[in-house]
Amino acid sequence: MLLKQTYWKIFLGFVITTTAAVVGLSWWNLSSVPKTSSTSKSLLTTRPIRTLKAHSVWVYAVAISQDGKTLVSGSYDGTLKIWNLQTGKLLDTIDGHSDAVESLAISSDGRMLVSGSWDNEVKLWNLQTRKLIRTFSGHLDDVESVAISPDGKQIASGSWDKTIKLWNVKTGEVIRTIKQQDAVRTLVISPNGQLLVSGNEDGKIMIWDFKTGKLRTPLAAHDQAVWSIALSPDGKTLASGSYDRTIKLWNSQTGELLHTLSGHDNGVWSVGFSPDGKQIASGSYDRTIKLWNVQTGQLLNTLVGHNKAVWSVAFNPQNHTLASGSADKTIKIWQVPSKTDIVTLPSAVELAAVLTKQPESTDSTLFYPLNQKVYNQVNQAWEQRGRSQENLVYRLGAASDGAILGYQLVNSNGGYSTEETTKKNDLLSRLVKRRPATREAIVHFRVVFTKQGILQVSPWQGYNTTN
């Protein structure tokens, strides 16, 4: 329960120099931007494409069926709600638990739904008929997490009573009880059915042999409670989210720590892998969702839209949409870019040379610095527009057929305000004065430089000028 789970501004320096490393950049291919139309495509400022409202209180859990058609949400109000994910229509409401529903799992064939509740019970439902199949009783405290095996024959449940229980789906009997030293906050079964991984209140992660129940790898993973864990589609990479505000990526076979992802301003409640295993989404008490590159550990995007804690995130197995459940009583659906090229460049000069050379099949290109601490080294304000900045603006413009740099302020909560590039004395007017007096297509660019070390440049608007 939450009673047991006790628990501004970011300074934005907008600065561009020819000698500074480019901190990070998401760029939408100019060849796809009409010269006289506008576009709002952007990684950093992605907004939800749909908001689902029906729960009267917090949405603790969301799960999506393997075919990508059905979404299920579980709430503090004790209900389960079934949604058509394609239309956003509420299909049904299931009452059955007497307390908050904190965890959900859907079988791989989409026929069964498992729910875990603060009423100490695990329930199995027919997802097609919405009828209760069986109730599994035996835990002595809140059921914090549930999972169902790939073959649909077993259910795993983790509880505040410091135990993991494995249940026979057909008979309802307990197959095995695994005792822990602290409350079990989260668990997952590997895609091949060989591993069971649990995350505990004491910050430890335990990797078990699912068939025998024997401990294979104990990990002293986090300084504080592990609230969420997830396995990549191939089962090779383990992600853990913690109250210590970090996400950690592990080799699930060896227990080797691969990356520590920092950026959230509060505890991380939920983590989930994209269908291709290349991205991780993390939902936090700081009200944001962050997207990360699994291979590099780099922050790709911050999704903003919820106004309270994000309890749960889940990718659609069939596409790059993401669902999130929040304490603001809503479920939000997000579109996540699927095709991303990643390039490491030491300087903006080299960046300018490659801007127009990306394949049309690529949605975006992310540029990361060789120096990971650029933000700490570069602390000039945007208003300090030196000659070096103007030179870089000109180079970028020349390299990408007239790119104009504008800017956008983003605060720590993800809200943003845009400064128009037509204002007096801004970079647009400076660059236009440098250009030949001929009609040429010009594309505005937003520039965002955040504390997390992300520089975003994305097409904003195309138009013609005679100046």
From TrEMBL:
Ribosomal protein recorded as keyword: no
Cited Pfam families: Beta-prop_WDR3_1st, WD40
A single BP term in Gene Ontology: proteasome-mediated ubiquitin-dependent protein catabolic process
Keywords, in A-Z order: Membrane, Repeat, Transmembrane, Transmembrane helix, WD repeat
Transmembrane found in the keyword field: yes
Transmembrane region(s): 7-28
Gene Ontology cellular component terms for the protein in this record: cytoplasm
WD repeat extents: 52-93, 94-135, 136-177, 177-218, 219-260, 261-302, 303-344
GO molecular-function terms, A-Z: ubiquitin binding
Domain of life of the source: Bacteria
Coiled coil stretches, renumbered: none
InterPro entries reported in the protein's UniProt record: PQQ_b-propeller_rpt, WD40/YVTN_repeat-like_dom_sf, WD40_PAC1, WD40_repeat_CS, WD40_repeat_dom_sf, WD40_rpt
PROSITE patterns: WD_REPEATS_1, WD_REPEATS_2, WD_REPEATS_REGION
Record-linked PANTHER family: F-BOX_WD REPEAT-CONTAINING PROTEIN 7, PHOSPHOLIPASE A-2-ACTIVATING PROTEIN
Protein name, per record: WD40 repeat domain-containing protein
